C-alpha cells in the first residue's frame, strides 16, 4: 500500500487491539491493528485508513521520539510514546516510596524524557519531613514543585499551566496522592472525556488499564496523560553497569573511578563511594542504587 492512501492520526487510547485515534481535524475514529499484534501505544503517530464509515485500520506506526516503559522479568508495559515531560506526583501523605520515585526518574532519563516532581498536600503536617526526603533530588537539579491541590486550586492551576503549555505531559503517581484532583482541576470535563472514549471503544466506563489522553485546551496543543497505578516498576531494560549513568547525583563522578568498569560497590579508588563518604551522594540514594544493581544483575527467576 502506498502512503498516499493513509492518513496520520494520534493514538489517544488503546484497549487490546482496539485503538481510538484522532485525525488532523480532531475527529476520533475507532481503529483496529492488523493481525494479532498490538504494538502501538498512546501518544503514537500512526498511518491509518478508513475501513468503513465508522472504523479504520492502523497500517503502521511512525518512528517514535521516545517511549516510556517499565519492564519486569516477564513483560514490558508501555506508559506512552512521544512525551515532552514526565511529572511524578508524590504527596506528604501517604508517604512516598523513594525507590519508586527513583525508578520512574531512571526510566525517564534512559528514555530521554525530562522529569519533574510535584509534592502535593503541603498543607498537611509532615510537609517538612517530605521536603527533607526530596532534598537530594532538588540538589541534583530536579525541579520539585510544591502544591496543595485541594485547598489552593487557583495557585495550583497558575503554577501548573505554564509547565504544561504546548506539551504532552504524563502524570505518574501512587494511589492517594491527588492524581484525580490534579486532572479534574485542569480538565473539568475529564470524566466526560473518559466516558466518550470508553463508549467509542466499547471498553466499559471504568476501564482504566491503559493510559488516558486528555486535551487541556480546545486548540488541542497541551495534553495531559494519566496512567493507571502500578505495584512494581521494573527496570530490566537497563543493564546494571549503565545504571549510575541515569542517576544525576552519581553522574559527575563516573569517569573518576580507578577501574573503568567499576560497579561503585566495593572497588578501591571508587569516586562514587568517596562522594558517598563525603556526603555528596545521599545514603538513601546509594542504598537504592545498590538494591537496583542486585536486581538488575541477578538472572531472571523464571
Ligand atoms: N490535605 C490535602 N488533601 C488532598 C490534597 N489533594 C488531594 N487531597 C485528598 O487526597 C485524597 C486522594 O486524592 P485523589 O485525587 O483521589 O488521589 P488519586 O491519586 O487520584 O488516588 P486514586 O484515586 O486512589 O488513584 C482525596 O481525599 C483528596 O481530597 C491536598 O492538596 N491536600
Ligand atoms: Zn566507582
From TrEMBL:
Q: Which residues form the EngC GTPase domain?
A: 81-231
Superkingdom is: Bacteria
Residues the entry annotates as binding GTP:
120-123, 173-181
- Co-factor binding details: Binds 1 zinc ion per subunit.
Query: Which Pfam families does UniProt cross-reference here?
Result: RsgA_GTPase
EC assignment: the record states: 3.6.1.-
The main location class comes to cytoplasm
Which key words are in the record?
Cytoplasm, GTP-binding, Hydrolase, Metal-binding, Nucleotide-binding, Ribosome biogenesis, RNA-binding, rRNA-binding, Zinc
Q: Matching HAMAP family, A to Z?
A: GTPase_RsgA (MF_01820)
Q: What is this protein called?
A: Small ribosomal subunit biogenesis GTPase RsgA
